[in-house]
Amino acid sequence: xxxxVEDVDTFLSEMRRVCRPGGSxxxxxxxxxxxxxxxxxxxxxxxxxxxxxxxxxSALARHFNDVHLFxxxxxxxxxxxxxxxxxxxxxxxxxDPLGLRYRLPEVVAFAVGSALKRVGRGKPVxxxxxxxxxxxxxxQDVEKALDLLAVVRR
Length: 154
Fold this sequence. Notes:
With 154 residues, the protein is of the alpha+beta class. It has one domain (2-153). 38% of the residues lie in helices and 18% in strands. It is built from five helices and four strands, in the order H-E-H-H-E-H-H-E-E. The chain has helices at residues 8-18, 32-35, 53-61, 76-95, 106-119; strands at residues 24-30, 66-74, 135-138, 147-153. The protein has a four-stranded antiparallel sheet with strand order 1-4-2-3. It is globular, with a radius of gyration of 17 Å. It starts with 7 loop residues before the first helix and ends with a strand.
C-alpha cells in the first residue's frame, strides 16, 4: 500500500519506529517500469507514487539498514494478461490527455472505464488458470517484474 501514501518518508519512518529491533517489514508494490512510461502519472487515482526498483530501494535504505529487493514474476499467461491490461490502460490514457478521469466522481470514472473495457476486449482468457504457483519471486531481472517485493529488517 506504499503507493497510496502521500509522504513516503514519514510512512517509512513510522514503520521503522513501530518495528521491534530485529523485526521485519514486507512491502509489495507495483513495478513502475512495467506499467508507466517516463513522466506518466499512475492510472489508479489513489496511487500517489509508483516506484521503480532503484527508487524503492533508495527510499527504504533511508530508513532501514537491511534491505532485500525481489521482483514478483508470473507465468507466461499471467504476463500476457498483464500486457493486455497495460495496453488497455495506455489506450484509455491516450483518450484522456488532460487527466479528466482523475477529476470525475469515482462511480462515473468506473462506468466509463468499464464501457471502454468492453469495447476493446480481445480474445477471452481462462482466469481460473492463474493460481498461486503461477507466481514466484526472484532477485533476477527485477526491472522486468510485475510487482516489487521488499523485505527490510530493523
